[in-house]
Every structure is written in C-alpha cells, then in structure tokens.
Amino acid sequence: MINKKIAVVILNWNGAKLLEQFLPSIVSFSDEATIYVADNASTDTSIEVVKSKFPSVKIIQNDSNYGFANGYNVALKNVEEDYYCLLNSDVEVTANWLTPILSTFENEKEIAIIQPKILDFKNKEVFEYAGAAGGFIDKYGYPFCRGRIFDTIEKDLNQYDDEREIFWATGACFFVRKEVYRKLNGFDGDFFAHQEEIDLCWRAFNLGYKAKYTYKSVVYHVGGATLNEGNPRKTFLNFRNSLLMLLKNLPKNQLFKIIFIRLVLDGIAGVQFIVKGKFKHCFAIVKAHYSFFGLISRNLKKRNAIQKQNYYHTKSIVHRYFVKNGKVFE
Questions:
Q1: Cβ count within 10 A of residue 219
Q2: Which of 63, 194, 221, 233 to pair with 145, CA 20 to 30 A apart?
C-alpha cells in the first residue's frame, strides 16, 4: 500500500449536488492523495451520495455544523497525512494539480502554506475572486490578490505565471503542513467563516513561516456557492472578522491607530450601502462592530508575543483604488 502524504479534505454542509458535480475531477486527478469529505452534520443526501458514488472517498462526520473554521479544526484532529489540502466543495481540479505542491513541500522546508492559481469556473479565462494568484493585505487590513483588487478582476494573460512568496492563501484551496496547522491550533473558531485563512497565514508569518503561490497547479472555483456576495451574513462576517484579525496580529505600536481608522472606513462603507439602498448590509456592519467589541477581551489574549512590523503593504489600497484608479496589482 502506497503511503500517501497529502490529505485532500472537503468540508461539506448540505452540498450533495456540489459533491456530485465536483468530486469526479478530484477523484480522477488525485492519485497522490487520500480524499476525505468532512461533513458538518448535513441534513441532505450528502453522505449517501459519497458512499454510493465515490466509495474510495473517506467520510468524516462532524456532530454539528461548526462552520468553516471549527468544522476543519474538528475534522482534522484524526487526519494524519503530512500535508493538508483544504478544498471547497465547489472546486474543479486539473491533471497533475498536486505534483508541484508535493514537490514544493518536499524540497522547500521553509514553505508552510501554498496556493495554486485559481480561475473562475464560470469563465475560465479570468481569475476567481477568492484567491486569484495569491493574497496580500494593505495598511488597514484590506485583503487583495494578484488578479483581484476589491471587485476588479483581471483576465488571466499569464501575467502571474510565476512562483513567489505571498502573504495569504485562500481557503478555497489551501495547502498547509500538518505540523504547522497543529502548532497554530488551526483556524480561529471565533471567525466561524471568512478570513480565518488570512488570520492563520498572518499568525504563521509572525512565527517565521512562509506562504507561496505556484502557477503550475491550476484549479477552477465557482465561488459563493455556500454564501453569495449579496448575503448580509457575508458582510457581517467579513467586517467583523477583519477587525478581529487586526486586533490579534497588528504590532502593538500600530494597534489603536489602525483599528480606529478602519472603524471610520467601515462607517463610510455603511453610508455607501445606504446610498445604494442596501440597508441590510449597513445594519450588518453595525452588528459586526458590536460583535467585535464584545470579543475584544477574549481575542486580546490570543495575541502572540511576536508581531512583525513588515507584515503588509505600507500603503492603502483604498486610496490607490478609489482615488488613483489603481486597479491592477503592482
């Protein structure tokens, strides 16, 4: 029996149709991996679909819907392969997608986290919003990608066909060494979903680990299959979790200043939602701030002893994007 070093773990909640659609490519192109479906107590036919149509796939049954963050934390406790691939259920993979990942982990010991090139499943000529060609973060904690800044998404013209260090990798297709994931105690359960992967990458960075992007591995992501962009719940989670991430990871001498400015910028975003008639999204920001304030004490205790100064781009992409019309990664 071949000792497989990669575990491809697909977190699922009531996604029977997605599993039927996307598991075939994963099973076909993942000979180097053991494939798991980690089910967050689905009430649909997900388990039956996997058992009947994909017998080679192992099933991990969580006893509740723990969300994305704790869903993986619970499921991965008993997954012992050396490297984890945390893969969304709405991702189509391609031939040899795992080969460059395994090679990088085996030959570059300082690399703890890897992201492949992520293109849009619905339009395979453009990058996908969630991760594109690797993530960074600006002065005020706004995440952006090579290939996507705010809502501007680039066409794939091979401009990011390279291999380089990045600041964060998307949770849509997130490769991480098991030992590092466990050293960091996995994702932060307070996040529930959204930006927990950026927080984990930031914590890894503060401990001296590196994240890398490779164009040699390509996947196609639907995006928004679980919670689409128009859902106020997504607005709440993104705004609340971004503040939590700053609170936990900013250098001490930047903490108050950056969070204060970010709260002001959030207020401006709320006004924009009102102008557009999106009142539920404005209310979601208010709820996000109340939730953040309620979690301050608990999350201050999570701050690591080390917070690096050179953690982000020192400029604001808000100013560059909205004032200077800078809509392409530089």
A1: 24
A2: 233
The rounded distance, in Å, linking the Cα atoms of 96 and 32 is: 9
Strands 163-166 and 58-62: unpaired
Give the torsion through C-alpha atoms of 144, 145, 151, 156, to 10 deg.
Answer: 170
- What pLDDT is attached to residue 1? 44
**Strands 6-12 and 33-40: what pairing?**
parallel
Q: How confident is the model at residue 191 (pLDDT cuts 50, 70, 90)?
A: very high
- What lies within 8 Å, CB to CB, of 204 at 6+ separation is 112, 113, 180, 184, 211
Distance set, CA 315 to CA 3, 135, 147, 269 (Å): 46, 15, 18, 19
Q: Output Rg (C-alpha) for the chain, integer angstroms.
A: 19
What is the spatial distance between Cα 207 and Cα 305, in angstroms, rounded to a whole number?
9
Q: Give the per-residue pLDDT at 62.
A: 96
Phi, psi of 221 (to 5 degrees): -115, 135
Encoding tokens for residue 281? 């999204």
Looking at the DSSP assignment, which residues form a beta bridge with residue 221?
Answer: 91, 120
Query: Which residues fall within 8 angstroms of residue 187, CB to CB, at 6 or more apart?
Result: 68, 69, 70, 72, 73, 196, 197, 199, 200
Q: How confident is the model at residue 79 (pLDDT cuts 50, 70, 90)?
A: very high
DSSP H/E element including 104: helix 99-107
pLDDT tens by residue, 230-272: 789 999 999 999 999 999 999 888 899 999 999 999 999 999 9
Q: Token match 């040899």: residue?
A: 96
pLDDT, one tens digit per residue, over 44-55 is: 999 999 999 999
Q: Tell me the backbone φ, ψ of residue 77, rounded to 5 degrees.
A: -60, -30
Q: How far apart are CA 148 and CA 153, in angstroms?
A: 4
Q: With cut-offs at 50, 70 and 90, classify the pLDDT of residue 312.
A: low
